[in-house]
Amino acid sequence: MFALTFLGTSASVPSAERNHPALLVEAAGKRILIDCGEGTQRQLLRSGAGFRRLDRILLTHAHLDHVLGIPGLFSTLGLRQSADVMTIHAGPGTLDIVAGMLAGLWGAGRAPIAVAFAPLAEGSVIDAGEFTIDCFPVRHRDTDSFGFVLQSPARRHLLSDRLAALGVPDGPMRGELAAGRPLVIAGRTINPEDVLGPPDGGKKLVVVGDTETTDGLSRHVADADMLVIEATFLDRDADTARNYGHLTAAEAAALAVAGNVGQLVLTHMSGRYQDDEILAEATRIFPKTRIATDFDHIVI
Q1: For a designed S-S bond to 224, which of 12, 45, 168, 206 qualifies (C-beta 3.0 to 4.6 A apart)?
Q2: Which residues, given as ranges, of the chain have pLDDT below 70?
Q3: CA 62 to centroid of chain Cα atoms
Q4: Residues classed as catalytic
């Protein structure tokens, strides 16, 4: 299960209703921030999420609307005397920019809290046991941008009627079968497949920040339960979208179709359009689309 709280859903210019980009993801007792636009610390408070157990930030790229909230957040965490090390995962170029920003304010290595920098390369980012995070490169205006795949494994549960029929008693024997190991009872081999139900519960969440194209992304978003992605422009302004390195709502929706996505959530909204315009363009192509607003809370 993944719980998402949208802390900021604007494009580069915020509005009275939309803050700069930030997304809080909670899974298996862990809380991870994806991007940290200006004002994110106040959005954490306004949403009720607060700062507890927040020790990891994933950055899609280094543009200021996605990172400028880091100094303020760190300053507050320092005043609260947080003992946790904050790990920032980002492309090497993005980390250089963030490290330089922090050093310019406090001096090299002297941020208000302990910080660890973890450079990204395509592949595994975190294996937390209950879920994993992988990353993949995204093209956006000569930045070292990344998207993220968060995945929880499917679980198979023991079928009590099958266990009873095969005479498997309660206790360690059932644990062996649940772990995938066969048993021998009264000279008869019982295999895990004999007593395990079909897989269920596995979830896949894909988060993509700014991107100028969907080329090469369908394999990463394939069969995702949810895709969160920008839709800064409408199709009538596709040329402008290319110039600024962003997607149209139609392109995001077409990616959802190509990837057999369960639900599409659009973010990074531009104030030049009404939400219903954006939604109409996307739903014509992919009906299971919604537009994220600040403080939306979605569980998958």
Answers
A1: 206
A2: 201
A3: 17
A4: 65
Q: What pLDDT shows up at residue 270?
A: 96
What local confidence, expressed as pLDDT, does residue 97 receive?
97
| pLDDT at residue 159, as a whole number | 86
Per DSSP, what are the bridge partners of residue 151?
A: 132, 204
Rounded to the nearest 10 degrees, how much is the dihedral formed by the CA atoms of 235, 22, 218, 274? -20
* Res 254: pLDDT: 98
Q: What is the DSSP letter of 237?
A: G
**Single-letter code of the amino acid located at 234:** L
Distance of CA 296 to the CA centre of its chain: 14
- In the chain, the domains with their CATH numbers are 3-155+199-299 (3.60.15.10), 160-194 (no CATH)
pLDDT value for 81: 87
Taking residue 214's Cβ as centre, other Cβ atoms within 10 Å add up to 20
* The one-letter amino acid at 124: S
**How far, in Å, CA of 195 to CA of 174, rounded?**
9
User: Which residues lie across from 18 on neighbouring strands?
Assistant: none
Q: Is 214 in contact with 195 (CB distance < 8 Å)?
A: no
